[in-house]
Structures are given as structure tokens and as C-alpha cells.
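This part of the workshop introduces the protein records we will be handling. A record pairs a protein's sequence with a compact description of its fold. As an example, a complete record with its sequence and its C-alpha cells follows.

_____
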Amino acid sequence: MVSSVFQLQCSCNNYPWGKKGTESLAATLCAKTPNTGFQIDDGKEYAEMWMGDYPVLPAKDLQTGEELHKIVDENKEKLLGKPCMEKFGGVVPFLPKILSIAKALPLQIHPDKELSERLHRKDPEKFTDSNHKPEIAIALGPFEVFAGWKHQNDIQALFSVLPPLERFLPEQHAHFNNETLKQICQRILTASDEEVAKTQEELAKIPRENYGKQAYILDLLPRLQEQYSKEDPGNLVTLLTMNFLSLSAGDAIYVPADAPHAYLSGDIVECMARSNNVLNTGFCPRADRDSIELFTAALTFSPHNAEQVKLGRSATDKSKNGKTSEYAPPMSEFNMLKTSLKEGEKESIRAIAGPSVLFATSGSGKMMADGQTHDINEGYIFFVGHGTEVGYEALSGLEVYQAYAE
């Protein structure tokens, strides 16, 4: 009979935007789990460590090697609980990851449920599920990201005072609104390589003071050009229309389905609804870009300023000792707990009416759950079945994240 609590082994993918070798926190944490055979190659990029039951890059039981989705499928009621099964079906409804980002990820959106269902029916090999994929990202250190739209007034200010941008304005734009913004994005994304490069060359020659409070565009432009090319339209879409945020450890953002985003640098905890669907249109080779018409048609226009992108955290009633805070995005599939303990401190997390995946990002200690005591050290990952209380005792500064659904 399967235990309600068991340690997981996970693995990393090797997307070219990931950090190399031991510079990658994703790889470093992945290598901490004992007896997995995972070894870091300093010549390889390590982008993401996945910690869920999604069949792509699935987590496995450390002791048996069995894939998590198979364990869950055979023990749904015990591990998920009836309420969670009725609400989300017989799967863990979220997918946590660690990302280590050396350069910009593709400019992308994750389609909503309606679009995902259509795409999955049409091309199930590319769009491997019919679910939506709203997500959160929590900074583990300095984190740079483009996410959501700038305030409409800030976008309009740029297109009103910078002559090179006039070529992307629709003919009728007396009232600058979301439809105008959609057309601008479509015109940039469909522009020729020469037109995109020429626009950037012209923008780089404009005096800094003409950009007002958005002069940071001139600092980021050569950096993005070096990462990809002067011909990549992602440079223009992100810098001219999207919020640029520079976050610190503990800061978080929420990205709804259909909202544009491109992570630029840093190490983060990411968690999303259980899906792997994505539409890319920039910061990638032209051959890898998805339909621009589909991308722009799907766009949502919220959030529409930097503050709306940010996700706060607050005290949680799941904590008994007050050492845990909670990120609660406006979606039903999951919340995320963060427990921070100094040496010798203890915490207890009340039983949750659904599954959890918890993982230590730093420190060491003991974890008590389901009548057993486990070592929990940096990089250790555990699955916790529904209705299970969890306790921690820190041997050194211990930081644990716990994604859960109920």
C-alpha cells in the first residue's frame, strides 16, 4: 500500500535559455536528491526542474522509480481525496518547477481552456492537453521579467513621441485602446526582419530624454539584441508594450492565461495549472514561432500595469506557529506556502484537503508526517497526500515551498 508521504526524484530539461552547469540552481537542487545518478555537465544548459505528475518529465518515487502520475492514478482517493477528485479529476492539478534563466525565454502566452481544447483536438502532439495554464513565479534571488501590458498612457506616450514607431500604428487610432495595442503587436510581429532591425537602429539614435521615465529601453535593447538578434520582433514588443520588472527574493508575479510574458534572468519557483501548452512569437528562431494571427487573437489585456502583475503573500491559517506565509493567485488549481525557519525553529502545517508537493530550496532539517520522520535538506522534494499534517524542525536555516490544491 502506498504511503501518503514519499520522497521524489526529478530531472531537468536543457533548453538553451537555461544556465550552464553548476550555475543553474535547477540543476544544483536536482543533484541534491541522493541515489538518483543525476550528474551535472558543466557544458550543458539546465533550464527547468519539473516536480509534478505531468507525463512530460515526470517526477518519480525515489525508492521505487515509479512515475508519479502512475502512482496517483492507482491511488487517487488516498492521495488526492474525493473533494479534489471531484473538482479537478484524477490528477495533481498543478505543476511546480524550478527555473534557472540565463537569457530571455520566448515571448509567449499560455492559451485559455477554450483555445487549448481547440488546439489539442487539432494537433494533440504539439498541444498535449486541453487545459489552461495560468501561473505564478516567485523570485529566489534577483529576477527580471517582462509580464503583462504597460499602462495604456505609457505605451501611447512612446508611440506619440518616437517617430520610428509610426510605421506600426494602425491608420485609424484616434482613440488609443486595447484594439490599437493588438494591431500594433500584430504589425510588429509580421514586420520584415529588415523593418524590425531598422526600427531598432533608429530608436537607439534618439536622445535618452525623449523616452522620459522609460529610458531603460535604451539600456535593455542591446542586451536583447545580443541574446537573439536585431531582427527579432520580441525586442520591440517587450520593450515598447510590456511591463519590465526587476524583483528580489520572495517577490512574485501572477500571469493569467493569454497574458504575454518573457522571463529574462534569475532563479525562480514557478507553479502553474497542469498544462504544457504554449504559443511563442518572439525570442526564438522564426521557424519556431507559432501563428501570429492566433497569438494576437488570443491576447488578454489584463494585467495592464506593473502593480497588477505582482502577487503578494500573506499570513496563512495553514500555519500553527506563524512561520509560514502564502501566495494565493486568483485561480482554483493551487496556492503556494513558504515556510522560513531559523536554526532550531519548528513549524507545523495543518492537514490539507488535497495533494501537495513540497521542496526545500535551502537549509536542512527534519520533516514529520504520516507517523514518520524524514531528512529534509536543500533540494529534497516530497509528495504529500491529502489530509496529512506536516511538521518541520530546522537544523540550519530551512526554506520550504509547498504547492497544494484543495
In short: The chain has twelve helices and 21 strands. The first strand starts at residue 5 and ends at 9. The CA atoms of residues 356 and 404 lie 4 Å apart.
